[in-house]
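Collaborator request, handled under Task 6.
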Amino acid sequence: MSRIGRLPIVYPAGVEIEVDGVFVRVKGPKGVMERTFVPQMTITHEKATRQVIISRDSEEPSIKALHGTTRALLNNMVTGVSTGFSRILEIEGVGYRAEMDGKKLVLYLGFSHPVVIEPPDGITFEVETKIRQIKINGHDKEQVGQVSANIREIRPPEPYKGKGVHYLGEHIRRKAGKSGKAKK
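C-alpha cells returned to the collaborator:
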C-alpha cells in the first residue's frame, strides 16, 4: 500500500465531513470545500474516531499513484477549512511597494501604472508595508498557490539585482554583471 495513502486522516472537533461515495464535502470555521474523487478509491468515514480512511480497489500503478494523491487532497481540504493556508511574497527594488485599497491589492512595481489585483472568493490579502511583504491567505491550498504565482508573475525577480516579487525564502540565482573594459 501507499505509505501516504494508508494513513488515516484525523480531523479536529470544529470540522464536519460528509462522504457520499466519491463525493466529499468538508465544512469548518474557515469555509466549505467539495471535491469528487476517482471511483477506484473507497472513502470510509468513521464518525466515532473522527477519522477518514482511503483505500483502493486495485494494484494497478496508476491507481496506486492516485491513492496517496487522494489522501493528500482530502487532508488539505481538512487543514484548509480548520486552520487555512498562507503564502508570503517579498517585494525587492527601489520604489517597489504594495498597499491595500479596501480588499484590493495595489502593487507599484516600476510600471507606468499601478497594478490592482482583486482577490478571488476565499482569498484575502495582508500587506506589511515596513518590510514590504504580501501575505495571501485562504482555505484552498491550490488557490492560494495559484494566486501567489500570478502575483509573482507580474514582476518576477531578475537575476542581476534581484529586483521583483519573490516568495519568502526563495533563492534567486544571481548573474555577474558586465565586466569593465579591459585595460591595456
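The cover message to the collaborator said: "The chain has two domains: 9-82, 85-167. The mean pLDDT is 93. Please let us know whether this matches your experimental observations."
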